[in-house]
Amino acid sequence: DGGITQSPKYLFRKEGQNVTLSCEQNLNHDAMYWYRQDPGQGLRLIYYSQIVNDFQKGDIAEGYSVSREKKESFPLTVTSAQKNPTAFYLCASSIGGPGEQYFGPGTRLTVT
Amino acid sequence: AQKVTQAQTEISVVEKEDVTLDCVYETRDTTYYLFWYKQPPSGELVFLIRRNSFDEQNEISGRYSWNFQKSTSSFNFTITASQVVDSAVYFCALSVWTGTASKLTFGTGTRLQVTL
After folding, report:
1. Which end of chain A is less congested by CB atoms within 10 angstroms, N or C?
2. Nearest neighbour of B106 by CB, restricted to A43, A50, A98
3. Cβ B97–A104 below 8 Å, yes or no?
4. pLDDT along chain A (112 residues), means of 10
């Protein structure tokens, strides 16, 4: 079964802790993306990677970090520097170029 | 900069009614791509359609149809004979291919509620 997996589905953390969200895809896609969704809003791009070992900041990268050591994996770390980390995080992948992006099921992060 | 506007925040219809979701976009690029995604209550975004700026042909897929009009910068989505399973948030999105990256700009979404 090809697709994108994100784990865990729900994540709870205390303020001041870093937390890493997992994103894995077996679609053989080159490009991967991380988005954040807040209630009543559209998705906003955090980071994206067009190829292994390379990634770029999106529109709201402050307080986040990523790595792309393998084609299949694009983990996102929400650091303690992120002022308002509670949100729904979605990972996506695409074949690259202007192709459509396919999304994982998302991780709902709550920081208290 | 790109911008996508979905002015309808929420729409409620009774099953079997037709419903149109509006999408207006802004871009200075002549080559761009438009998308519609569905987000059911489970949260995962489901890809519905992609159109490029050179193809203004309308498309129909079952009960779904899309009307792309460059003259009005609109890419509207119509569901014919709506069903309860169509209840979801629908997002319109725009991307511009820079040659090295393609980033989606999303609208704020339209929540569709279909009741019996």
Report:
1. N
2. A43
3. no
4. 88 93 95 93 92 94 97 96 94 88 95 92
